[in-house]
Amino acid sequence: MSQPKKDTPLRSDAQRNRERILRAATAELTQRADVPLSTIAKRAGVGQGTFYRHFPHRETLVLEVYRFEMRQVADAAVELLETRPPERALREWMDRLARFALTKAGLADAIRLVTSAPGGPAKPGPTPVMEAAGTLLDACGAAGVVRPGVTPDDFFLAIAGLWQIDPHEDWEPRAGRLLDLVMDGLRAGAPGR
Prior knowledge:
Blueprint: H1 12-31, H2 37-44, H3 48-54, H4 58-83, H5 86-103, H6 105-115, H7 127-142, H8 152-158, H9 171-187
């Protein structure tokens, strides 16, 4: 059976199957980078045929899980801005980003496995998350609660310490302290302070 075109919407049952596979793959790949695809299919409650129709190769699945997870983190920025003041939205989003980074260590290993093979796909970039950071920083800048001129690149350099924290230890207090320090730095020199 041929694959639907990328812009052709999936039937609702096919979409539900795809989402179940992605959720199951996220859970399994987070725990073990080299989990058998049959384990993911079983956890998703789909047969092998359904699984391979959606994801014909491990690489396809791993990269789609990465994109799916990055999209969830990115979409949270807009949701937070709709319900919170910009400064609070940024800080809560930083917590979500930390949770993604530190609870998905196995997913990072799975991405390295599929992108390091000769002739394998390139590692996808963090574009949606960079855009989300830009949206939050712009909103904070317009509200006068962060220093002017902070770019998404600056922001990610400032929080790079997150990736130095061991995800197997009690990481939340350390991540919280680091992100509080970053927020203090972002606030320094803000026109509304």
